[in-house]
Design a protein that fits this description.
mainly alpha, binds nickel (II) ion
Length: about 170
């Protein structure tokens, strides 16, 4: 449970930096990669992450610029990555300038339910990590090299002359 804005910002900066590295790896050609027909494409997952920052956090009363674009992902990987960059920075400056720690113990209407703002921030980060993990699988299927996030990747192990762990 976040009890200070600083604790959230510290974690958010680490996670959003990792998410940005994932989004910056996307290529236009990779955006249509899917697990199966009718499932969200790699581009749509990235767009969902990029647009959820404002979609979710604006419900708490935080004010920062909404991303441009529609529900469907653009065909440009750079647009998706840049949209996330702008929204992530917008959230950081908004929460630092508009909230005090006391706001974390207040509740907001979230999708018809009352959630503590601290809970919303936790779910927001978890939601992003969840979809980021889905993206990693699709990125591998699309032939992209995925960034190391919490530890070395298979490619990192091989480059270090080590046998990848099972
Ligand atoms: Ni989602």
């Amino acid at each position: 449970m976040f009890t200070t804005i600083q604790a959230f910002v510290d974690e958010w900066k680490k996670e959003s930096t990792a998410t940005q590295r994932v989004l910056d790896t996307l290529t236009d050609a990779s955006l249509n990669q899917r697990i199966a027909p009718d499932f969200r494409s790699l581009g749509q997952l990235g767009w969902h992450i990029a647009t959820t920052v404002h979609e979710m956090l604006s419900r708490t009363g935080l004010e920062f610029a909404a991303p441009e674009g529609e529900e469907h992902a653009p065909s440009s990987a750079k647009t998706i990555a840049d949209t996330y960059r702008t929204s992530a920075a917008g959230l950081t400056s908004a929460i630092q300038s508009q909230w005090t720690d006391a706001k974390l113990a207040e509740s907001s209407d979230m999708y018809g339910e009352q959630w503590l703002n601290a809970t919303t921030l936790r779910i927001f980060i978890s939601h992003e990590i969840h979809h980021r993990g889905e993206m990693i699988v699709l990125m591998r299927q699309a032939g992209l090299r995925v960034p190391d996030i919490y530890g070395p990747t298979r490619e990192d192990w091989l480059e270090r002359g080590m046998v990848p762990l099972v």
